[in-house]
TrEMBL record:
InterPro entries: cNMP-bd_dom (IPR000595), cNMP-bd_dom_sf (IPR018490), Env_Response_Regulators (IPR050397), RmlC-like_jellyroll (IPR014710). One of its GO terms (cellular component) is cytosol. GO terms for molecular function: DNA-binding transcription factor activity. SMART domains: cNMP (SM00100). It comes from the Bacteria. PROSITE patterns: CNMP_BINDING_3. Residues 7-76 form the Cyclic nucleotide-binding domain. SUPFAM superfamilies: cAMP-binding domain-like. This is Cyclic nucleotide-binding domain-containing protein. It comes from Streptomyces xinghaiensis. Pfam families: cNMP_binding.
């Protein structure tokens, strides 16, 4: 599990409060498929408790988990980047409590407040970079002839 996203930590207290005004609490039972790769990304979550696996579709194979997220992590970043389609899938590994945000509402807020927009975009970009690196490493470990080589570093 990670808590590397720093999304809320990257915001000022006032910005956090403005963002959290848009949140609503949701619960996902263990085993719930939260979203599927390729479908419309119209929301995101900040995990309060529980674990979520992030996976990637590999044709002809079971979708491997590329990362497991937990408390404090951002679940979903595709809502910010057109064409706003999920780049990964996600499933509740255990019961999950989270704050859910509707993308349209958050995008309107970010448009109204460019300073908040820049802070959120920068924080989400860090999550994107981390997730893509994690996916690459995991897929190399699973499918490349000699793995990722990460253990040799």
């Amino acid at each position: 599990m990670t808590n590397r996203n720093g999304v809320l930590a990257a915001l000022t207290q006032e910005q956090r409060e403005r963002l959290m005004e848009l949140a609503r609490e949701v619960v996902f039972p263990a085993g719930t498929r939260i979203f599927e790769e390729g479908r419309t990304a119209d929301r995101f979550w900040l995990i309060k408790s529980g674990s979520v696996t992030v996976d990637v579709h590999v044709p002809g194979r079971r979708s491997p988990t590329v990362e497991t997220l937990g408390t404090g992590d951002l679940l979903g970043w595709s809502w910010l980047i057109p064409p706003r389609r999920w780049n990964f899938g996600a499933e509740a590994l255990s019961p999950v409590r989270a704050y859910q945000f509707e993308a349209a509402e958050v995008l309107a807020l970010l448009e109204q407040d460019p300073v908040l927009g820049r802070a959120m975009s920068t924080a989400v970009a860090g999550v994107v970079a981390h997730r893509l690196t994690a996916a690459r490493t995991r897929l190399l470990d699973l499918y490349a002839p000699y793995g990722s080589g990460a253990a040799a570093s």
